[in-house]
Structures are given as C-alpha cells and as structure tokens.
Amino acid sequence: MTKAERKEWVLPGKKAALFCDAVQYNGLLFTSGLVARNADGSVYCPGDGEAQARFIFENIKSVLALAGAGFQDIIKLTIYLRDMEDRVKINPLREEYFQGTRPASTVVEVSMLAHPDLMVEMEVVAAVTENTGQ
C-alpha cells in the first residue's frame, strides 16, 4: 500500500492519539469508533444516550466533510449501545441525519464502553472519491 492510496484523518482541534478518526483507502472511508467526548476528553452529557448520539452524528458529519463526503455516502453504520432502549430515541436522529439514505446497519448492546458514562459508540464505512480532501 502506498501513501497515495491511504490517508489518515483527525478532526481539527483534536490531539493525535494511538489511532486516527478515520482512514481513507481505495475509495472507502473507515471511521474509528466515535464516542461523545469533548475536546478536553470529558464525556459529553454523561449517561444521556440520545444527546451523545447527536454529538456523535455531528462528529461523523465532520469526518465525512474532511474526505469530501456526506451521510448519503455511508454504506455501513455500526452502533454500540449500553442500553438497547436508547435505540428508540436514536432512530429519529438517524432519520434526520441520513434523510432517506439507508445504509447497511448493525445495532449491538454492549455491557461497557471506554468510560462508564459513555452510552453510545458508532463507526461508519463510506464511499468517497479517492485522494480527496486536504
């Protein structure tokens, strides 16, 4: 794999970590699991799955924009929930952000995420134009 085929994306204002927010490779964009963390690392709206989901969708929107893509380009969405009851609250947000686009989707209930106050984690795969962006 050459550097021209692979591009790593990190959201502006975010410190580089052991992983990046997304990797673009051969026309696909793969995000890392995105959670509701503020720039200082604190959890956004602790314990509130709906608020955290909106926060994550906004971050997904930002990552997609870096690669010149949007929600219509997402082909796979995976959502990890601490409480499956939050699915009912998140579904209207999905409709709002995806606006009729229906990606392949998986929703899984998990016992724990990276912090006890995190309720939702999401990752996506999107189709993007190769070598776009900055």
Characterise the protein shown here.
- By secondary structure, the chain is an alpha+beta fold.
- The protein has one domain: RutC-like (60s Ribosomal Protein L30, Chain: A, 2-Layer Sandwich).
- It contains 2 helices and 6 strands, in the order βββαβαββ.
- A 6-stranded mixed β-sheet has the order 1-2-3-6-4-5, with helices on one face.
- The mean pLDDT is 90.
Low-pLDDT parts are none
CATH superfamily: RutC-like
Structural class: alpha+beta
Shape summary = globular
Q: How are strands sequenced across the largest beta sheet?
A: 1-2-3-6-4-5
Provide the succession of SSEs.
EEEHEHEE
Output the CATH class name: Alpha Beta
Q: What's a quick, concise take on this entry?
A:
This protein has 134 residues and is of the alpha+beta class.
